[in-house]
TrEMBL record:
<dbReference type="InterPro" id="IPR058031">
    <property type="entry name" value="AAA_lid_NorR"/>
</dbReference>
<keyword id="KW-0547">Nucleotide-binding</keyword>
<dbReference type="InterPro" id="IPR025944">
    <property type="entry name" value="Sigma_54_int_dom_CS"/>
</dbReference>
<dbReference type="InterPro" id="IPR003593">
    <property type="entry name" value="AAA+_ATPase"/>
</dbReference>
<dbReference type="Pfam" id="PF00072">
    <property type="entry name" value="Response_reg"/>
</dbReference>
<protein>
    <submittedName>
        <fullName>Response regulator</fullName>
    </submittedName>
</protein>
<feature type="modified residue" description="4-aspartylphosphate">
    <location>
        <position position="54"/>
    </location>
</feature>
<feature type="domain" description="Response regulatory">
    <location>
        <begin position="5"/>
        <end position="119"/>
    </location>
</feature>
<dbReference type="InterPro" id="IPR027417">
    <property type="entry name" value="P-loop_NTPase"/>
</dbReference>
<keyword id="KW-0804">Transcription</keyword>
<dbReference type="InterPro" id="IPR025943">
    <property type="entry name" value="Sigma_54_int_dom_ATP-bd_2"/>
</dbReference>
<keyword id="KW-0067">ATP-binding</keyword>
<feature type="domain" description="Sigma-54 factor interaction">
    <location>
        <begin position="146"/>
        <end position="375"/>
    </location>
</feature>
<dbReference type="GO" id="GO:0003677">
    <property type="term" value="F:DNA binding"/>
</dbReference>
<keyword id="KW-0597">Phosphoprotein</keyword>
<dbReference type="GO" id="GO:0006355">
    <property type="term" value="P:regulation of DNA-templated transcription"/>
</dbReference>
<dbReference type="Pfam" id="PF00158">
    <property type="entry name" value="Sigma54_activat"/>
</dbReference>
Length: 450
């Protein structure tokens, strides 16, 4: 532990010495004496943790010095020592933030000793509370992993906080690439289960005939190819969280097996009889509307109620407004770090183009778009030309930007002008518009000729 730094400010050197001697008996205290208010203020850069001041000094009243010290750092305890007992003065000083008010008499040094110890204790408690607050904030701060500040995503944070504090099952819905797995992980790592495994299984990615043994495990010889006993994902996630992604892709037969496991909270490996007790929290995700799947008979209603738990809906990126740019900058920084390159900048044209786009592939698509733009850009500036819409084809690509009708008209005219060597008259005829319309577009710089 480093020494606890105390300033004693008193213009009576004899009295200072007594206090210094007394306080220095504690080897943890480092005491500095100053003979005037000015000298004390000059030395605040030494960062005292406690200051005692004499109430009546020649250069500055205790009142004035207290105000200046509090202005420098309102948290440092200041103990005022006065030659006379004046209740009104004492009250006034305490109101202004003095930690204690002591009278100079035979008991002062002992009272001071106790007061300093109390101040230290209060400070250490306050530090501890601050630290706990910080830890708590860090624990529940999803902002570091889930980037975005839009009202839509902030609403999600609130639900996630509730999910972290309880053990209830969670169902996450949202279009592909909206961050369902990121949310599931964030919930797990901010919950009481964080020290136990987070196991993710994508139902759509496992061949149908293997799903059962993947989830529940199998005994040696349970089927051809089962050469050894294997734990299933449920067992792997013991004590932790099992994330069942694309739950709607599970066929009806397996749905009833899953329901049984969730109800009984125990699993039997394929080809075995041993019951394994489970303590697993389930988080499911789907890009489908599960309720609709139930209505259409593709998803068991009883399983739906089992897994629904706390529903969290992730908004598509196109409904998150400016988050597009916040995420873009985040991915740019990530790219630059991973590739040990300076961070490219987005120019206005690139920003505008991204904000107009509807991102059918959501955050995943935005990340791919930024990675490519960072590679393509010149002189470290990403322009609209470096922004490519990879996920959409044909008509969809044409409409994905959601431009105004005027802007689409200009795009069409520009396309034909390029195709026919900027022959304005010929293009006007083909499109059945007046050539002056095209000339106007050119003169007003709505269209730039190649
Ligand atoms: N808000 C976010 N902040 C930072 N990164 C994000 C955010 N949302 C998604 N990502 C990133 O986008 C990518 C896709 O996210 P994720 O895999 O969680 O989406 P998903 O909804 O589970 O997709 P799918 O439905 O296709 O499984 C990942 O690389 C993830 O890290």
């Amino acid at each position: 532990m480093s020494a606890y730094k105390i300033f004693i400010v008193d213009d009576d050197p004899w009295y200072s010495q007594i206090l210094e001697y007394h306080l220095s008996l504690n080897p943890d205290f480092e005491v500095h004496c100053f003979a005037s208010g000015k000298e004390c203020l000059k030395n605040l850069h030494l960062n005292p943790q406690l200051i005692t001041i004499d109430y009546s000094m020649d250069d500055m009243t205790g009142d004035e010095l207290l105000t200046k010290i509090k202005h420098w750092n309102s948290k440092v305890p200041v103990i005022v020592i006065s030659g006379q007992e004046e209740i009104s003065v004492a009250l006034e000083l305490l109101k202004k933030g003095a930690y204690d008010y002591l009278i100079k008499d035979d008991n002062t040094k002992d009272l001071l000793w106790n007061s300093v110890l109390r101040a230290m204790e209060t400070q250490s408690l306050r530090d501890e509370v601050n630290q706990l607050h910080e830890q708590l904030e860090h624990k529940f701060s999803f902002e570091k992993t889930i980037i975005g500040q839009s009202p839509a995503i902030t609403k999600t944070f609130k639900m996630m906080e509730k999910a972290c504090k309880s053990n209830i099952n969670v169902s996450i819905t949202g279009e592909t690439g909206t961050g369902k797995e990121v949310v599931a992980k964030a919930i797990h790592y901010n919950s009481d289960r964080s020290k136990k495994p987070f196991v993710a299984v994508n139902m759509a990615a496992i061949p149908k005939e293997l799903v059962e043994s993947e989830l529940f495990g199998h005994e040696k010889g349970a089927f051809t190819g089962a050469l050894a006993r294997k734990k299933g994902k449920f067992e792997e996630a013991q004590g932790g969280t099992l994330f069942l992604d694309e739950i709607a892709e599970l066929d009806l037969n397996l749905q009833s097996k899953l329901l049984r496991v969730l109800q009984e909270r125990e699993v039997t490996r394929v080809g075995g009889n041993e019951l394994v007790k489970l303590d697993v929290r389930i988080i499911v995700a789907t890009h489908r509307d599960l309720q609709k799947e139930v209505q259409e008979g593709h998803f068991r209603e009883d399983l739906f109620y089992r897994v629904m738990g706390l529903p969290i809906e992730l908004p598509p990126l196109r409904e998150r407004g400016n988050d597009v740019l916040i995420l873009a900058n985040h991915f740019i920084a990530q790219y630059a770090k991973e590739n040990k390159q300076p961070k490219p900048k987005l120019d206005e044209s690139a920003k505008e183009k991204m904000l107009r786009y509807n991102f059918p592939g959501n955050v995943r698509e935005l990340k791919a778009m930024i990675d490519l733009a960072a590679v393509l850009c010149e002189e470290n500036i990403i322009t609209a030309n470096d922004i490519n819409y990879a996920s959409v084809k044909g008509d969809q690509a044409f409409l994905a930007e959601e431009k105004s009708l005027r802007a689409y008209t200009c795009d069409i005219v520009k396309y034909f002008l390029t195709k026919y060597n900027n022959d304005v008259v010929g293009v006007a005829k083909r499109l059945n518009v007046g050539k002056s319309t095209i000339y106007k577009m050119i003169s007003e710089k709505e269209i730039e000729l190649n």
